[in-house]
Amino acid sequence: MLRSIRLIQRVANFSRLANPHEVNPKVPDWFKSSDYMEPRFIGSESQQVNEMLKAVEAKSLDELVDKIIPKEIRSEAAFQSPDNFPDAIPESAMVQHLQSLANKNKLYKNYIGQGFYGTHTPYVILRNVLEDPGWYTSYTPYQAEISQGRLEALLNYQTVITELTGMDVSNASLLDEATAAGEAMFLANSWFEKKKFFVDNHVFPQSIDHIKTKAYYLGIDIVVGDAKTYDFKDADQYCGVLVQSPDNLGEVHDWSDLFKHTLKDAKLLKVIGTDLLSLAINKTPKDQGANVTYGNSQRFGVPMGFGGPHAAFFAVEDEFKRKMPGRIIGISKDANGKSAYRMSLQTREQHIRREKATSNICTAQALLANMAGFYATYHGPQGLQKIANRVNCLARSFAKLAKSLGLVVKEGRIFDTVVLHNTETLQEYLHYNAQTNVRKIGQDTIFSFDETHTVQDVEDLFNHLQHYTKKKADFMSVIQKVIPYKSERAPFLQQKVFNSLHSETEMLRYINYLRQKDVSLTKSMISLGSCTMKLNPTSFMLPVSFQGFSQLHPFSPLSCTQGYQELTENVEKWLCDITQLEAVSLMPNSGAQGEYTGLLCIRKYHIMNGQKDRNICLIPISAHGTNPASAVLAGLTVVPVNVVDGYVDLNDLNKKIKENEKSLACIMITYPSTYGVYEDQTKKIIQLIHEHGGLVYMDGANMNAQVGYTSPGYLGADVCHLNLHKTFSIPHGGGGPGLGPIAVNKKLAPYLPGREHSLGSVASSLFSSASILPIPYSYFGQLGRQGAKKCTAMAMLNANYLMKSLKDDYKVLFTGQNGMCAHEFIIDIRPIKQESGITEEDIAKRLMDYGFHAPTMSFPVPGTLMIEPTESESKSELDRFIEAMKNIKLEIEKVKNGQYDKNDNPLKNAPHTQDQVINSGWSHKYSREEAAFPLPYVLQRGKVWPTVSRINNAFGDRNLICQCPSVSDYQQ
Amino acid sequence: MYMRSIFKLRQAFSVLTKYTKDHEWIKYDTQSKIAKIGITDYAQKELGDIVHVDFQKVGLVFKTHQSLGAIESVKVAADIYAPVAGEIVGINEDLKDSPNLINEKAEETWILQAKVQNESELDTLLDKQSYDKIINK
User: Which residues in chain B are closer than 8 Å to A353, comparing Cβ atoms?
Assistant: First the structure.
């Protein structure tokens, strides 16, 4: 079903969008538009830039870059001509241009279904969550004390999932439905250690495609058959059976017979894919005997967006929770015994478990999961049931009406989907005569109804059917006979939060009450190293909500998607230019998924070249945990390579290459390295790997330090992924969405998804989260060649300025040539710990008292902090951070010399909450002022209060609670 | 001669305790031929608050250095490596609900019981003195 063919057409010549006078050097500068993005995007103005340059002893930005980046790796080929990369155009012009692209997408009446449905996003949620930077600019809630708002929202989402599915534990979302199905297969395989997996042939085709892809590279045998008729005499050979209800043709099944009788004692994982809305009236997967259930929460108020982003859900029985992929939010206690939320069971995850992780997923779909959670909160259980019944009644009326015209309707119980047999020309008829898109399989035409459809829509369809069949029947008499099914459900979502926020006033206040608890970019710099928390400009975000982008179904016919085609082709072209590589796939839905796809590309290449035994993947020990986790999922064996003083150990590399000469598949390297330096030996490493028949995967996490100055292609990489949510301004959404397209060279291009020798499918649709592509599109278009390059240089200037300012107080772990860092640097807290007992965590939590979000903790080196300021922060914000860090160092000195108690000091007790500080029983050995207002600016700016004190992590992991408390708990 | 047989007798009924450089201990009962395996106090301190023990199944026949499960703290997951080759005959069920027992009494809390394939392999492991030397380096 994935659209692998596109209309062949000329790529819109973007550079022409720039008004000729704007780019004409003969026109004096004072005539040029006043709304260019560059000066807004870069935090500091020229005077501040000069001051920082002086501090880092460089005369100009160019000289600074020369000092930092080794000559041999510099290449600016990508940025030589406007033919391959555009001139900047002003903000207003770009918004207009994107509106015109959105208008080129045709919003026909949509009944396509197949996992994507129309939905009314409540405007209170649209404006105050999806379009609110308080929600979309925050990071994954690693620093739980200043993330209680979105953690609570995510816990609500998990509760919605467990309540509707009947399962015990839900995670806080996966990337999409197809990958969720793939995760279920992988869980089955690792739990039961068998290499055969059964998939019902009525599962959505996009899910089957992905399961097959994932299985192929892991050597798992997929049997696709009819679970209703298959005898399962060989059940013992399977590690799992995956079915779906409602299925691809809309039939609602009760799988109890299969799972509770036929397979009752079989040692295999029972998986049901399902539709969340249908569960408001239908039997739960748990009641049908499932161990695991998955699906898509998109129709809970998240626009289709031509494929995404949206949150897939994944829920399991208690027994399987420690093998579950993705983030799980749980309830623990803070230092004062107050209930507090946090991410639980993190040892399952890639950043700790590396190649033994349960999945490579890190970015999920937090923002969209929160929207779905709020949607359920706003409607409540009765509201959801009403919507489900309404959709169901529309579908059943339509089925009856079609029958009344003599059409043959597929038998069986339905939820929202109607299949009309023997109607081969109907799809085309409706498309051309009624501007209506429906699905077609063989001779059958398929209609899926959703919340946005009305009785009028059904009547319109009926009228067209009358015309099509040349028959007449009565509409109203049929409509009046259809009444809602009796619900099969026990009461659900009885918790208070789902039964008390149904007025817009209450909902608005709840959303804002939660948002206020969190530190996002609206409050302060978030200097998370390797995460690149740069500006997400409002004008980049605005087009995401344009109807033409947000309301389009991903399987719409090509004639309706012209705007998206131009958008994606331009994004692909510019990514090729920036990486100096040949071709791009926009399919991978996150950075980790990009790694995975890139590695599959490499595997497919070796397989097609008759070298399927090349399965060794070399990974420096400094790599991000997703690297080994992704490699394992791609069926590769990870061989770690040592790192000495921040550089890949060439001796060890040579040794590992020699040991694996015949089986070397590839190396995964990050550039600049995760230690924040431009290694000058990278080209040598790449050459070495190539000489031994291996390929080179470049992790694009640090692409923001390459743009304009060097490129993966120039350095010799064969494939790289790009975190569009880091380098190209897609916001982090509090833990997703992300996008991780891959770029490959000529050699690997034929293996990209949808091409000649496609590696397979890694998402539910070809462009996965297509509706957030206007963001990187705006980045390229509004910053242009010069702006994008300046961003890179400014990121380096800010990092080096910070480093120089802090290096007398904190030990800087690694530097590159001339003692400079790249766009980020690491400070070593281990010596401080040894002298004073103060840890990196104490400093991270203490920064909250100063109103800051901590830098990255203990990655890539344990006991350190990694700081990345990005180009978007101004010198004054950097100075405020420096002031805070220096003051913290003074506090550490006081602990060291005994002025502060070793255990009862502001660092060990950080962060401090409002109720602690105003409590008249304050008994600590330091003052309340020192605790809460350690520097004058904290008071002057307005204090940002952490809402809970230090969270007890062990308690939360030992006593796992991942749902809202029940009503009875409230009463206690 | 007399002394030697006494010594032999004592040895026959004794429990032999050995250590690995990966911070496991193994207590081998020379009479029942069953060994208990746990992690050292040093390892427990390095891991921090232990929240879960991931067991392999009883009946697993394992080689030396094979993973016999994992110990999870809030931020780390550490494999338990087999000190010698053998077969798992029991797991400490108490740890399922109270993994913190390891934090409290690491040297006394066994994680699993195993049949040892080849007694002489125990000789290759560290005694208390040599292990202490390693951790105090």
Answer: 77
Q: Which of A140, A4, A203, A182 is nearest to A596 (CA)?
A: A182
Q: What is the pLDDT of residue A6?
A: 42
Q: Is the separation of the CB atoms in A592 and A630 below 8 Å?
A: yes
B70 closest CA partner among B60, B81, B62:
B81
CB-based contact, B51 to chain A, within 8 Å: yes
**Mean pLDDT of the region A401-419:** 97
- Averaged pLDDT score across all residues of chain A: 94
Q: What is the pTM of this model?
A: 0.95
Handedness of CA A553, A559, A560, A564 (dihedral sign): positive
Q: Does residue B65 belong to any structural domain of this protein?
A: yes
Residue A84, SS3 per DSSP: coil
Rounded to whole angstroms, the Cα distance separating A816 from A715 reads: 18
B73 part of contact set with chain A, CB < 8 Å: yes
Q: Mark yes or no for CB contact B48/A954 under 8 Å.
A: yes
The residue of chain A nearest to residue B97, with distances taken between CA atoms, is: A958
Residues in chain A whose Cβ is within 8 Å of chain B? 322, 345-347, 352-353, 356, 858, 953-954, 957-958
Residue appearing with tokens 């006033």? A505
> What is the SS3 assignment for B20?
coil
* Number of DSSP helices (H) and strands (E) in chain A, helices first: 34, 28
CA atoms within a 13 Å half-sphere pointing along the CA-CB vector of A357: 30
Q: What SS3 string covers A562-631?
A: HHHHHHHHHHHHHHHHHHCCCEEECCCCCHHHHHHHHHHHHHHHHHHCCCCCCCEEEEECCCCCHHHHHH
- Report the CATH number at residue B46: 2.40.50.100
- DSSP secondary structure, A156-190, as one string: HHHHHHHHHH--SEE-S-BS-HHHHHHHHHHHHHH
Domain count along chain B: 1
Residue of A nearest to B69 (CA): A356
- Tell me how crowded residue A828 is: count the other CB atoms within 10 A of its CB: 17
Q: CB–CB of B99 and A353 under 8 A? A: no
Burial class from Cβ neighbours inside 10 Å (0-12, 13-18, 19+) for residue A611 reads middle
User: Domain of B90?
Assistant: 16-118+126-136
Question: Which residues does A85 contact at the CB level (< 8 Å), separation at least 6?
Answer: A78, A79, A574, A577, A578, A780, A784, A785, A788
Q: What is the pLDDT of residue A972?
A: 39
Chain B residues with CB under 8 Å of A954 CB are 48-49, 51, 73-74, 100
ipTM of this predicted complex? 0.80
Domains and CATH numbers, chain A: 141-377 (3.40.640.10), 583-768 (3.40.640.10), 784-907 (3.90.1150.10)
Residue A327's pLDDT is 94
Structure tokens at B136: 């105090």
Which residues are bridge partners to A437 per DSSP? A110
